[in-house]
Amino acid sequence: MTADQLPADRQPVIIAARRTAVRRANGAFKELRAHQLLAPVLVNLLADTQVPAEAVTDVVIGNAVGGGGNLARLALLEAGLPASVPGVTVDRQCGSGLDAIVLAARLVAAGGNPVYLAGGVESISTAPLRAYRNDDGEPDFFARAQFVPHSFGDPDMGVAAENVAARFAVSRERQDASALRSHLRALAAAKAGHFAGEITTVETSAGPVRDDDGPRAGLNAAVLNRFPPAFVQGGTVTAGNSCFDADAASAVVVTSLQRARELGAADGLLVLTTDTAGVDPELLGIGAAVAAERLLQARGLPAASVDLVEFNEAFASQTLACLDQLGIDPERANLDGGALALGHAYGASGAVLVTRLL
Questions:
Q1: Residues annotated as part of the active site
Q2: What is the CATH number of the domain that holds 53?
């Protein structure tokens, strides 16, 4: 049974969405820890929907590189929600923010007419230093977490992006063209005011921050062509056709269709069904295509029938390979640009994509 077959008090719908600006790591948000970055987004969501803070059932937040301690609970208290509101933190790495929203939608479908705040946040600027304790008690610091057993290879993300480019024959030229398209679209969207309604202003010691800083007005094909391979000698994945690390927060309000009507919500996104897939870690970037194909098959929909597609552009090679596998023209995806231009704030990125749809 899918959500549209459920009664109105169990049909999950997203009625509001907000995000901060997406800013380069160690930039405008470098002084803010993750819970401080997320708090104003939660405040804005309650104001946008007129949902009383005490009516929030739970706060579900994704995060990838934070300090632990149940970040969701920390952020909701920072935002001024009452201590009676619980919180739970989700980690599916770069899918964390999206998975938090999926979890909230599934909880709505379970019944109870609840109201959830769900999304993700990442402060790469303030991510804690991490270390294992050696046998002698000395710290063994590591730059990133181990994703899979070493017997699987545990490739660096950039190396995996090169593997995808090679396996699915995604040329350097196509990757660079995709990056340029993302920047041009993001610049045009910002100029047209498409982001104005979704961005929450964040106060910092240097002043308010309300604009993304990633899209580059002077970028062109010749500039992109000058970037050397970033991960593999002779490879095609470069700093120019890969995302950059960013700080951001994004969240949505997920409730039932019945509750949305009671709140006077004029429109929203009905969550019909979701899917997640695991793939070979050496080709991890292709996972989204596998999940999306299963989701489309479950609904009996051809990919060509989907009007809006938001795809996290961690790497152009991965984005293009997935869209190719699904039979989706890249011109139809990420109409306002994506992470190649705006940046990738790990745990927040999935929620940013949903915000873009609403």
A1: 94, 344
A2: 3.40.47.10
